[in-house]
Design a protein that fits this description.
- By secondary structure, this protein is an alpha/beta fold.
- It has one domain: Rossmann fold (3-Layer(aba) Sandwich).
- The chain is 40% helix and 14% strand.
- Strands 3-2-1-4-5-6-7-8 form an 8-stranded mixed beta sheet, with helices on both faces.
- This is SDR family oxidoreductase.
- Keywords: NADP, Oxidoreductase.
- Pfam families: adh_short.
């Protein structure tokens, strides 16, 4: 019988939304590989997943260390030969979430935020794309944020009007642009690329006042990771709702 195992790699998979995404994909039968920059935390997350009955592996991945990209590719290629799902979940927020700082955001904050939230994602995706193309139905999920929606920010009476953290928001808008461009480039292939807004979630990044619990945080990423052949590509979604760019 042909090998029907499906493999998913989730960056920042050792905690919060990434860990929950790993858990739910594992419960759907995926062999999940969690990427994290801290081996101790990665091992703890791996044990948690295995206790939950998930078939899981751990590999060191650090968005700030480009050399880990190739190490991840080598690991996946040698053990699995292909990659069915890539969830670019790792992200960084260095500003006040409700700040308004476009006039004075420090350059180092801009650079670090874009390095993690955009450049590292593009670099890793380019590295792993050959493995995704080997899968029968490759799926790439870029975990973005509604705060990257220029349409929402500029709308009259916008519900996100107060959240003008420029570096973070701009990095997510740029990530959305990557989604659009890559999806267009891959038209006619079996690979689908989409952006996901998980919601405002109680995590280290989202803070304690967020309305969503971690248990509900993976719905959008998991849905986009498991789209059928008739599913969308090049979109921006929260759960079943399409969001404006």
């Amino acid at each position: 019988m042909a090998d029907v195992k499906k493999v998913a790699f989730i960056t920042g998979g050792n905690r919060g939304i990434g860990l929950q995404t790993s858990r739910e994909l594992g419960q759907k039968g995926f062999e999940v590989i969690i990427g994290a920059r801290d081996a101790t935390r990665g091992a703890a997350a791996l044990q948690e997943l295995r206790t939950d009955g998930v078939k899981a592996e751990f590999v060191l991945y650090d968005a700030k260390r480009p050399e880990t990209d190739q190490a991840v590719k080598d690991y996946i290629e040698s053990r699995h030969g292909k990659l069915d799902v890539l969830v670019n979940n790792a992200g960084l927020l260095r500003e006040e979430l409700l700040g308004k700082n476009a006039s004075n955001v420090p350059e180092d904050v801009l650079r670090e935020t874009f390095e993690t939230n955009l450049f590292a994602v593009v670099r890793l995706t380019q590295t792993l794309l050959p493995l995704v193309k080997k899968a029968p139905a490759g799926r790439i999920v870029n975990v973005s944020s509604i705060l990257g929606s220029l349409g929402m920010h500029s709308a009259e009476g916008s519900p996100i009007a107060a959240a003008k953290s420029f570096a973070y928001n701009a990095s997510k808008a740029a990530l959305n642009a990557f989604t659009v461009h890559l999806a267009d480039e891959l038209k006619g292939t079996s690979v689908k690329v989409n952006s996901a807004h998980p919601g405002w979630v109680k995590t280290e990044l989202g803070g304690p006042h967020a309305p969503m619990d971690v248990a509900d945080s993976a719905r959008t990423s998991v849905r986009l990771a498991t789209l059928g052949a008739d599913g969308p590509s090049g979109g921006f979604f929260h759960e079943n709702d399409r969001l404006p760019w």
